[in-house]
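R.M. (postdoc): so does anyone remember the format we settled on? I'll just put the structure tokens first.
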């Protein structure tokens, strides 16, 4: 991974004190498992993340399982909202429309964009492309913005 890519991940996940303040683990285990690679971040607008399609994430037909593709979107929406708001969020709705399949060896590029944000909810949309630039899927999501962790 290039130094620019490391700096991009750190600029999003490395916000001073946020991990302790909210009691969260960054990057999340899912992003590590999916081998996410941050490609481009336009502050408060969009984030593009690449993911390799791994054999262990295929279904019985040997293509990327739909739930994993949904996770690729979710693991792009999360960092985008976190970078934009400086707070974590939890997905309250995610819609994915599957257009074509992907297989091991492919690279999926997910670009997420903020549509709107309020005090409690943020709305985003995304598109996933293969390495040939073919549209694989589209997604929309709404997420609840979390406040500081409460002491019990």
């Amino acid at each position: 991974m290039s130094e620019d890519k490391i700096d991009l991940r750190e600029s999003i996940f490395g916000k001073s004190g946020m991990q302790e303040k909210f009691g969260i683990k960054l990057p999340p285990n899912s992003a590590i498992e999916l081998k996410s690679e941050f490609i481009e971040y336009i502050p408060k607008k969009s984030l593009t993340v690449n993911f390799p399609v791994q054999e262990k994430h295929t279904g019985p037909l040997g293509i990327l399982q739909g739930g994993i593709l949904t996770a690729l979107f979710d693991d792009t929406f999360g960092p985008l909202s976190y970078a934009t708001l400086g707070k974590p969020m939890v997905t309250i709705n995610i819609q994915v429309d599957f257009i074509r399949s992907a297989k091991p060896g492919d690279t999926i590029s997910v670009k997420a964009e903020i549509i709107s944000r309020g005090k409690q909810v943020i709305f985003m949309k995304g598109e996933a492309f293969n390495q040939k630039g073919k549209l694989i899927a589209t997604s929309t999501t709404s997420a609840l913005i979390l406040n500081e962790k409460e002491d019990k």
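R.M.: ...and that's the designed sequence above, right after the tokens. Also worth knowing: The chain has one domain: 3-145. Confidence is low (pLDDT under 50) at residues 1-6.
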